[in-house]
What we know:
With 161 residues, the chain is an alpha/beta fold. It has three helices and nine strands. The longest helix has 19 residues, at 88-106.
Amino acid sequence: MWNNTSEYFDIPMVNSQYLYETDTVPFLQIVLKGNIDYYAPYANQGFYSTNSILKMIEYGAYPSFVVTESLNYELTDTPQVDRFTVNFDDWKSSIINIYQKINEALLPVEGAKIIDHKVMVPGIVRVSYDNGINLYVNYTAEDSVVENETIPAHGFSVVER
């Protein structure tokens, strides 16, 4: 099946939410990264936040959006009525900002495979790639130092090993 797949859209970005799970392991993303491009669910069709962007970076997922030229209210009585915020002009600056942030993180690992995914301490994740890059993601409200690297609060660091 994967041999016939060139892209994967709407890849899972959350865990099962079971109480006994302490952290997520992006198994599917680990298998696919470096083999095919995959995209997170539409960022403008649900709640998205800084943590959502960080999760895309951690999982190596590209953002996706559904946009139209139409104003949102013009979609009433159309098959797209349940698309509640899709006007491109409304989303243009957010799309650019999200793209720039994710591109900054993922461009250095373009085409590389994930070889390790480790929670260093609660809220700090290290993703190692086969091209010698470590990508650190900090979900906490404080700057953190891990493995002699300072990872900004609610941010990420791209480091060559």
